[in-house]
Amino acid sequence: AQRVTQPEKLLSVFKGAPVELKCNYSYSGSPELFWYVQYSRQRLQLLLRHISRESIKGFTADLNKGETSFHLKKPFAQEEDSAMYYCAPYASNTGKLIFGQGTTLQVKP
Amino acid sequence: DGGITQSPKYLFRKEGQNVTLSCEQNLNHDAMYWYRQDPGQGLRLIYYSQIVNDFQKGDIAEGYSVSREKKESFPLTVTSAQKNPTAFYLCASRTERPYTEAFFGQGTRLTVV
Question: What single-letter DSSP state applies at residue B110?
Fold first, then answer.
């Protein structure tokens, strides 16, 4: 069965502190992995995708196939990073796109 | 103005009634999805469709039905068989060009009384 786990419901840090949002997945084959973000009163939107190896708004995520993890990291959190973050594996062979339980990131001033 | 539109934003229904949630997109995307969002449970996949006239059950399809007669539209019916229908429902469409990305509607909050 395809599963994704985000173990932290809430992550609270002070501005300037490093942030790591954890994501572990269980998938047959090689899924594409994404992080989506939902800011207050806005639609859910793509933050970054593992295949692009990009850094968006200072966030990066490394795919660790051995540990089946795709943790999201940022060295210095900003208040505007406060949002709900979802890890999402996508199976291109089935078209199935699932989401984790989500982690609320709260960045305090 | 391109995008994905869900209507209505709020919906109230009496217990035992079927209700249909609308989802329309003008992004020319083949794939569309329905999710249910509950506090602490994230987004759970109800149904998805990769092409017109075809759809697959997601992880929590019981009590729901869909149709995909047109590329632009993917309505979701919450039937009376759904035991706990009060929730926030999100629709999405997906593109693969130039990269895979899902685009979401603003959601419909359904309350069954």
Answer: E
